[in-house]
């Protein structure tokens, strides 16, 4: 198995990120630094990352978490704030899939499968994410809905068309498949309607459902299969 793929299967990082780690000289094989991501290795090769021996492929797991407000969507935080990883029990190295800003709530996924995480967030696969946004200001107009459906001009370019529908005079449901930073908030602000509350209710085929804030659950094999299909095919 190629070294970069071995690191991804061991839960260190996605394959692309693993290639960078290898190039940085942070991976050894049999005690020697290796910078070639295509180096063939197996469980008997003595692969280590930052001096820590790797035990080979971990069982692939994905958790669904209802992120509460105030929790950050990173694996660690330099300001010692609570992270989404802190809310999922277990000893495996987990990574959040995509991000929600600190004040947004709702469905976020965590996994030790770096390749799956990369595919779920890569624009190429257009995995949809659905949000419910409560807006400040006057009632949501048909004109605003049309703008969201056609694409909104932001400083980093026009967004792809979104699916948008009005739920109440001040709440809309918005489905996007891009992954720009704070995209839903920025889209609404660009149309003069700041977001007061934002919750992600669906990620690909998975719905938040009745999962309580701060609680996590491990996905079933059937859900994993659906998620892998949404992310572009077989699970690597």
CATH topology of the largest domain: Alpha-Beta Plaits
Query: Mind telling me the C-alpha Rg?
Result: 20 Å
Which residues form runs of ≥5 with pLDDT under 50?
Answer: none
| Proportion of residues in helical segments | 10-25%
Order of helices and strands: HHEEEEEEEHEHEEEEHEEEH
Broad shape: elongated
| Distance between the ends | 12 Å
CATH architecture of the largest domain: 2-Layer Sandwich
Assigned CATH class of the largest domain: Alpha Beta
**Structure annotation, total helices:** 6
Question: Explain this structure to me?
Answer:
Helix 1 packs across helix 2. This protein has six helices and 15 strands. The chain has three domains: 3-53, Structural Genomics Hypothetical 15.5 Kd Protein In mrcA-pckA Intergenic Region, Chain A (Roll), CATH 3.10.290; 62-123 and 206-230, 2-Layer Sandwich (Alpha-Beta Plaits), CATH 3.30.70; 128-203, Alpha-L RNA-binding motif (Alpha-Beta Plaits). The longest helix is centred in the C-terminal third of the chain and has 10 residues, at 221-230. The model has no long low-confidence stretch (mean pLDDT 91). The chain has helices spanning 3-9, 15-23, 114-121, 142-150, 183-190, 221-230, and strands spanning 27-29, 32-33, 47-49, 52-53, 62-67, 95-97, 105-111, 129-135, 153-154, 157-158, 163-168, 171-176, 195-203, 206-207, 216-218. The chain has 236 residues and is α+β, with helices and mostly antiparallel strands. Strands 5, 6, 7, 8, 11, 12, 13, 14 and 15 form a nine-stranded mixed β-sheet that branches.
